[in-house]
Amino acid sequence: MFFKSLDLTTALRPLLLPDEILLFVQDAVGLYEGKYKIQNYQSGHAYLTSHRVCYVATEDPRKYSVAIDLKEIDRVESQAGFLKSSPKVTIYSKPQKKKTDKSRSATASPAVAQQSALHPTHSLSHLPQTNLPQSSPSPKPINATWICPICSFSNPVPSNFDPAMASAATNLPPCLACGIKPPFTTVLKAAINAVTSREFPLLNLAVSPAIAQDTRQPNANASISPFGSGETVSCPRCTFVNHPSLVECEICGAPLSAGSSANANRVDSPAPLFEQSHIANTEVSECVKLSFRAGGDKTFYERLKGALVQRKWLLQNAPPVPSPSQGASSPGLPSPAPSVEIPLPSAPRTSGAGIAGLERRGLEARRKNELVIGNAFEDLEALMASAKQIVALAETLARESGMTTNEGSPETSAVLSESAAALGMVTTKDMLSSGSESLYLSELARDLAEYLTDDRKGILQREGGIMSLIDLWAVFNRSRNGVELASPSDFQKAAELWEKLKLPVRLRRFKSGLLVVQRYDWSDEKTIEKLQAWMEELRRVPPDDPVPWDWPLFGRAVTAQEAAHRFKWSVGVAAEELEMAEDRGVLCREEGIEGLRFWHNHISSPEYDDLSRLVI
Amino acid sequence: MTTTTTTPFPFPPTYNFPPFFTPQPNTTTRHSQLEKWSSLIQSWCRHHRQYRLSLIDAVETPLFHNAALRKRLDLREARAIIDWMAKSEKEGGGGRRAEWISDAGGTSSSGSLGNGVGQGPKAVAWIWWRRPEEWADVLVEWVEGTGQRGSVLTVYELIHGEGAMSQEFHGMDIDIMLRSLNVLVKRGKAQIFGGEGQEGVKFF
């Protein structure tokens, strides 16, 4: 396991890989290498994504940020806080390749396992499982059950059901008692639960004894047998109090979860500092600890476990799941969303020729989309599971509707339809532990900054580098597709945080109270320079119609609309900018029946003052 | 109008600048705008030998109405400019270059300019392209230059007399002449005697 260097976005957050999604964010997190605190890595944000655990320091984030790939993680442990010790999540690295064989042989030997069990400081919370599985060293099949929503009968999850690969299109066996097919989500949830609880005993077995030896610290408890503590484990399903050495409940057979993790290790706190100050690209010798000083450890731990189970990183180059309705006709379809299809006229289908065949294909595609939508919106979790398909479907629909409506649709709608990327990185309240309003706001501020500076969308560029906060709010919320909308007050508060967080966008209040968003390097002087250059240009270009005034001297009047068109601002912003320039005395106004127009300020320019004095 | 010269009035370049006719919200711009209007009004009145300005008539004249630009200064804005001109520089005004004639009826003796009568307050104003004090200086200079110190002149002579034909105060409004002479009286440089409309003045 290595500390990988981390690329940050403009908003100083981890740059996500394709298909990577953000799962959780927590602030006030410190980093430990083994038992040692790592200098300069003691106050920052922990980002959990589907592929990585990232740490980004609050101070100097470009220098002090690292990531650990989830695929290199062997297992994780949670440690509750005790007195002054903050709750911690420990991440154990996978053994090196050469060590793998050794560890495999070690698992077969009861003596080694016994030895590791004698040290309670090491993974105390999982002790009950650690001791026993010597008798059954081979991985057990998934022992998951799903409860039928119709008759509440406990059915076993089919052994070939893989929660990471399954989709709504997977064939599911009906309930054994009532014969009704279960909803996909029920089975998926059951399978994930089962895998989560199964993972740990198995992973513990695979720990190399060398690593285990390193982590443990001989202390007073070392000689005390864990069995002497009299700790018992109550079954999460039937609440029967089991002997701690059992892995399954004696009564109902449910897998027993980890016991209470109240035994915080206080020996290492306050911990000595890790010598190296720059840790990027260094190897983690044993384990990494994340210390959660402001809470959030429970959720982080749960999500991390979930991410380790789902193994999203495997999906990156995985072939698409062939859906049953499609059969074997097109197994090699490269599309990542197999159930979303636009009927292709050149499809190698033999069943139907001509228009009838096309129509049948169209009908099938529609039916499939219907099924996907129907399944996905049944449950939020199912929506998450099939999010990829739904986003793809939504994009297709948007593209189609965009084609059918007039081609001159505003550019903003193009931005909206490209919302898939926005879905990936946007922090929702769900990703944060409850009650941390300030964290939510700062994350929202970062979201916005990223959204604005994203070159793919180029929202700010398209709006001439400046847009009103209300426009941004509308576009941003629409790009969230109606879920996890940001409230106006949160939105404004988040925008006010940009300056504090040193993000590359700024909120600015015009004299009239209009709030606009602009780049940090945008200044009134620059705007005025632009306006003055324009005014100079107008003095050189003869007007289309003869004008009664001296145009080489005065130029021509401009309206807010013209300015908006020229600088690609919105009209409201253009009006504000012109008034700003007027305020600085660069422009002056002319009110007439044609409306408000702005001129270069010849009224207070001194060269003409002298002229008019001469006349007296 | 007393005397209207045949040469056309040379308007300053800003007169053809359309925003000149719109009140500017920016204070510095506004200040320069008022200054320019003030000097324009003064030079206009001086060119036309005009001492009082009736705004209601003036808004139709080329002074406040730029026909080429199809722009005009409305009455309210013209009043604001005269107001500004009437204030002293200390009050942030234009140095008392104008003065409202509050009781237009009292000045009807001048006859030719009685058109401001009955138009309510702030309808007619003196435009001081020369303040009465400045006129007093001009008079003293002329009297001394022509060796008329100690002699007695009627006010009519001063205004319409042949001796003062070439002078700027020739054909001056009688009210202004009296005010200027009163300045001289206060300075102890002249004495006014005689009745209403028959005033004579002696310079010391």
UniProtKB/TrEMBL annotation, chain A:
Biased composition (Polar residues): 105-137
A biological process term (GO) from this entry: protein transport to vacuole involved in ubiquitin-dependent protein catabolic process via the multivesicular body sorting pathway
Region (Disordered): 93-138, 318-355
Domain annotation GLUE N-terminal: ranges: 6-320
GO CC terms, sorted: ESCRT II complex; late endosome membrane
SUPFAM superfamilies (alphabetical): PH domain-like, Ran binding protein zinc finger-like, Winged helix' DNA-binding domain
Keyword field: Coiled coil, Cytoplasm, Endosome, Metal-binding, Protein transport, Transport, Zinc, Zinc-finger
Stored InterPro entries: GLUE_dom, PH-like_dom_sf, Snf8/Vps36, Vps36, Vps36-NZF-N, WH-like_DNA-bd_sf, WH_DNA-bd_sf, Znf_RanBP2
GO molecular function: phosphatidylinositol-3-phosphate binding; ubiquitin binding; zinc ion binding
Role description: Component of the ESCRT-II complex (endosomal sorting complex required for transport II), which is required for multivesicular body (MVB) formation and sorting of endosomal cargo proteins into MVBs.
Subunit structure: Component of the endosomal sorting complex required for transport II (ESCRT-II).
The protein's name in its UniProt record: Vacuolar protein-sorting-associated protein 36
Lineage per the UniProt record: Eukaryota, Fungi, Dikarya, Ascomycota, Pezizomycotina
Automatic annotation (TrEMBL), chain B:
Pro residues bias: start-end ranges: 9-22
Keyword Lipoprotein listed: no
UniProt keyword terms in alphabetical order: Cytoplasm, Protein transport, Transport
GO MF: protein homodimerization activity; structural molecule activity
One GO CC annotation: ESCRT II complex
InterPro entries: ESCRT-II_cplx_Vps25-sub, ESCRT-II_cplx_Vps25-sub_N, WH-like_DNA-bd_sf, WH_DNA-bd_sf
Protein name: Vacuolar protein-sorting-associated protein 25
Keyword Signal in record: no
Family stated for the protein in its record: Belongs to the VPS25 family.
Region of interest called Disordered, as start-end residue ranges on this chain: 1-29
Biological process annotations from GO: macroautophagy; protein transport to vacuole involved in ubiquitin-dependent protein catabolic process via the multivesicular body sorting pathway
Main location: cytoplasm
Compartment(s) of residence: Cytoplasm
Source superkingdom: Eukaryota
